[in-house]
Amino acid sequence: MTVLALLAVQPAEGRRPSEKKMGAYLFTFFNDPTHSLFMAVSYDGYTFTAVNDGRPVIAGDSIADQHGIRDPHICRAPNGMFYIAMTDLHVFGKRAGYRTTQWERPDNYGWGNNRGLVLIRSKDLIHWTHTEVRIDKAFPENFGELGCAWAPQTIWDPERQQLMVYFTIRQHPGGRTKLYYSYANDDFTDLVTEPQLLFEYPDEKIQVLDADICPMPDGRFFMTYVAQENPGGIKYMISDRINSYNDYHPEQIDGERGACEAPNMWKRIGQDCWVLMYDIFSIHPHNFGFVETTDFKTFKPLGRFNEGPMKATNFVSPKHGSVIQITKREARRLERYWQKNGR
């Protein structure tokens, strides 16, 4: 399995290019068979082609305590660096021979019951540093017995001038999953503040998970997330604070009949148009769905990969992904690297 170059020393940091210089999109995702990281490039925001001929670019067993990663989310900070946060979890670890039990801990801790995240950082999308963060060890007083730590995402907090990492936590065995946030250090090697709640869902019986926060043109923040109702789907809240939400809307905006999860919103280059992408785990074969909006109020369905304008050319069944804008030069450099070094 392919392993991307992992270096101890990074190139010097720069500055994030403006949107005027963007000319491509980078899609990061994983799949269940490999529990590894994939990357795909698009130049029009509709057709995505995976680098390395559709094979992983980082093997999960090379960077994760559980020998597998899930839920990769990529962002770019004002310093020009790329950051990917991932769940440290292998769902099929027993089958793969990494452990003798279904999960690391007894079943009463819940599905998956992992305790860690994987954080990686790069200047060029090719050479990466990585670290594994254990939430239970970092914050033992309130999270020493947490049931899970899933689906981390990262965003730059302009008020604190710091990277905010937000993710799903089941704080105690048998409890509900809720959404929390913390702040990372400058090197993206640790979380330096104890996780705090992003919000409380109105119905205390409903689990919430998989938040995604998108800056809006007016300076506010548009947060999508999953409420595990019937069916589970994508809801949203709007706030003028990046780390606090109470603007509850009961409607789901995904338009799916079955359950979906893992929302991610990204802006089309040079347009006042945003795409909401989500993971439809309730259909077979597995696929992603898309809607787009220009006003954060109405959402136009775009269908699914290869069932509408959105195309996946050389990969199938992606899971829990994210998309960012990159420059054409960055996209071509990434493609050339994997054409030369892929295997």
Shape: globular
Low-confidence blocks of residues: none
Strand order of the largest sheet: 19-3-2-1-20
Structural class, please?
Answer: mainly beta
Report the count of strand segments. Answer: 20
Computed CA radius of gyration, to the nearest angstrom: 19 Å
Lay out the secondary structure:
Layout (H helix, E strand, L loop, with lengths): L23 E7 L6 E6 L4 E4 L18 E8 L5 E7 L27 E7 L5 E7 H4 L1 H4 L4 E10 L4 E9 L6 E7 L12 E2 L10 E8 L5 E7 L5 E7 L21 E7 L6 E7 L6 E7 L6 E5 L6 E2 L6 E8 L1 H14 L2
Parallel strand pairs: 3-19
Antiparallel strand pairs: 1-2, 1-20, 2-3, 4-5, 5-6, 6-7, 8-9, 9-10, 10-11, 12-13, 13-14, 15-16, 16-17, 17-18
Q: Can you characterise this structure?
A:
The chain has 343 residues and is mostly beta strands. Helix content is 6%, strand content 38%. It contains 3 helices and 20 strands. A hairpin with a 5-residue loop joins strand 13 and strand 14 (233-239).
Which features characterize this protein?
343 residues, 6% helix, mainly beta
Short description:
The chain has 343 residues and is mainly β. Helix content is 6%, strand content 38%. It contains 3 helices and 20 strands.
